[in-house]
């Protein structure tokens, strides 16, 4: 059985008070669900969020980390540090990290290795840009992103990998991939993994879709057979919207 997940990526939003208030809004409205729910607040609010959700099934996850365990890397946070405050899942490879902070596949492969060495679960993000899709290169781009950052891993590592396909042209733009476009790419991702590894691994890995998922389009996207949930940006900052999306899965 694949994990069904809705994760809220808060990005660089919400101070401490806003974090507490959004968490309390989500908790009040989200009574019972079969879906795994995660939120990813900024680093400064991770511990407060973790404490606030200690008795709750909602998991608190990090948006990024450095590949080293510690050392002279001013401004960075390691897997060990995240683990020490109770965080055991991290988002890696988000397109905003790739575009604005120069994170490339080689760096991401190092981060992936470090997270796994520290027994963390990874939500690995990837996806093509608009120009790639226009030139019909989107499958190749996605295949390379997977190969370069993940295909050095041994088969057993995949139990700790969650994939998040996020076409860059759909992030924060209000333009969502159509359910057919999402399904087509998720199916392709599964095939690519099956070719490199086994059918069992490709059947098991959860593949989330991200990019302008909203309450009014979530159900249609989530109904696709190879879509196992969503990574939600903007709509995860409003408790009612986030919960409506969780309920759509
Ligand atoms: P939006 O839902 O705001 O498009 O963001 C998606 C995203 O980047 C989640 O990681």
UniProtKB/TrEMBL annotation:
Annotated InterPro entries: Aldolase_TIM, TIM_sf, TrioseP_Isoase_bac/euk, Triosephosphate_isomerase, Triosephosphate_isomerase_AS
Active site: 94, 166
Example of a GO biological process term: gluconeogenesis
Assembly behavior: Homodimer.
SUPFAM superfamilies reported for this sequence: Triosephosphate isomerase (TIM) (SSF51351)
Pfam families found in the cross-reference section: TIM (PF00121)
Pathway(s) where this gene product acts: Carbohydrate degradation; glycolysis; D-glyceraldehyde 3-phosphate from glycerone phosphate: step 1/1; Carbohydrate biosynthesis; gluconeogenesis
PANTHER family listed in its UniProt record: TRIOSEPHOSPHATE ISOMERASE
Reaction catalysis annotation: D-glyceraldehyde 3-phosphate = dihydroxyacetone phosphate
Record carries keyword Isomerase: yes
Record keywords, A-Z: Cytoplasm, Gluconeogenesis, Glycolysis, Isomerase
One GO cellular component term: cytosol
Its biological purpose: Involved in the gluconeogenesis. Catalyzes stereospecifically the conversion of dihydroxyacetone phosphate (DHAP) to D-glyceraldehyde-3-phosphate (G3P).
Enzyme category, top tier: isomerase
Family indicated by similarity: Belongs to the triosephosphate isomerase family.
Residues reported in the UniProt entry to bind substrate: 9-11, 172, 212, 233-234
Record carries keyword Phosphoprotein: no
MF annotations from Gene Ontology: triose-phosphate isomerase activity
CDD domains the UniProt entry points to: TIM
Organism: Imtechella halotolerans K1
Name of this chain's protein: Triosephosphate isomerase
Record's subcellular location: Cytoplasm
EC number(s) per entry: 5.3.1.1
């Amino acid at each position: 059985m694949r994990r069904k997940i809705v994760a809220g990526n808060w990005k660089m939003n919400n101070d401490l008070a806003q974090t507490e208030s959004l968490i309390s809004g989500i908790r009040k409205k989200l009574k019972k669900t079969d879906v795994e729910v995660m939120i990813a607040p900024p680093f400064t609010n991770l511990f407060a969020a973790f404490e606030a959700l200690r008795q709750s099934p909602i998991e608190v996850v990090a948006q990024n980390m450095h590949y080293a365990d510690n050392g002279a890397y001013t401004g960075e946070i390691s897997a060990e540090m995240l683990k020490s405050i109770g965080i055991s899942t991290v988002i890696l490879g988000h397109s905003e990290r790739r575009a604005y902070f120069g994170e490339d596949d080689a760096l991401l492969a190092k981060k992936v290795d470090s997270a796994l060495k520290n027994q963390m679960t990874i939500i690995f993000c990837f996806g093509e840009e608009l120009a790639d899709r226009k030139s019909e290169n989107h499958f190749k781009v996605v295949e390379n992103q997977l190969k370069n950052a993940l295909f050095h891993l041994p088969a057993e590592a995949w139990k700790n990998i969650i994939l998040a396909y996020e076409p860059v042209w759909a992030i924060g733009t209000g333009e969502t991939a159509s359910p057919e476009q999402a399904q087509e790419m998720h199916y392709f991702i599964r095939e690519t993994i099956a070719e490199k590894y086994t059918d069992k691994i490709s059947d098991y890995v959860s593949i989330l879709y991200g990019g302008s998922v909203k309450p009014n389009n979530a159900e249609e996207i989530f109904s696709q057979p190879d879509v196992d949930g969503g990574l939600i940006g903007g709509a995860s900052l409003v408790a009612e919207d986030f919960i409506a999306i969780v309920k759509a899965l």
